[in-house]
Specification:
By secondary structure, this protein is of the alpha/beta class. It contains twelve helices and twelve strands. A ten-stranded mixed β-sheet has the order 2-1-3-12-11-4-5-10-8-9, sandwiched between helices. Strands 6-7 form a two-stranded antiparallel sheet.
Length: about 375
Amino acid sequence: MRRAGDPADQMKIVVMPGDGIGPEVTIAAVRVLTRIGEIFGHAFTFEETLIGGAAIRASQAPLPKETLAAAKGADAVLLGAVGHPDFDHLPPSDRPEVGLLLLRRGLGVFANLRPARAWAGLEDAGPLKSSVLRGTDLIVVRELTGGLYYGKPRGLAADGQSAVNTMEYSRGEIERVAHVAFKLARTRRKKLVSVDKANVLEVSRLWRDVVTNVGKEYPDVALTHEFVDAAAMKLAFAPSAFDVMLTENMFGDILSDEAGAVCGSLGLLPSASLGYGAGLFEPVHGSAPDLAGKDVANPVGAILSASMLLSDGLGLRAEGAAVVAAVERTLAAGIRTTDVATPGVGTRAFTDAVVNDLGSRFP
């Protein structure tokens, strides 16, 4: 993770628009980052590269070598979305989504931070009663480079009658993401729940043991453990009870999406994937190809991912906070996209409102 020094430093941000609505929401995020650079005197440079279906359409691999090289040489990476049904006929190893998995592994990002909160004025946007949702402000810390998504052996039998995936974690992999979660909890309400399936899975038993041991180094953080099914139910009935939720790759993928639905829309959710080098920042929503080109995509997830890029990727915390405040004020003013309000505004109009808000606060 890069820490900004002199405000005049050149900071290189690699932008990967990707597929579906990815280009539309990354344009929104880049506009906001550009405005922040103007306001605070930072020199951001943006380099656009191909990934996923966009790369395949250009007769390249889902993650071209040039894309990975650019990402490794960047201060931060901003991603739109990956995936398109046009490529569902391809072998799994050649589909767009492989590009994202390879990018995560290539960058060495192992901790995925996915915040979810109930925004003022949007308490009725989700399926829960506003009285249940009110006060929800949680963050899922998901291990990103292990588990079922990467474990071997894996594959479909030649006769198509069976398949195998392997869930595997080492003690070291669990320890490093646990430290990220405990340190994060210290900056929040000092509550951490570790989610596993230790009553069934040996991997989860190791997970629980390691997290418990790491927790001894953070006596100021209250650690509890939940089985994943119980955590999923509690997330639907009492989301405000959670602060920091730590879990493995697949459980984190599912639970963070549930958190988005609970809070009103996946379009509201950002994420940061952190490791020892450049961080990867992307909205949680998918590529939604049916919405592409219609100016209806919610850019909040991408704009808030840009906020995390500033705060967690470049160490520009005041700048990141300014973006969050601008989004908060825009939503409070009643400006919302159609996925959370009827009638709603379009992608460009919402982005205009956020950029204008920043301009009015920092003329």
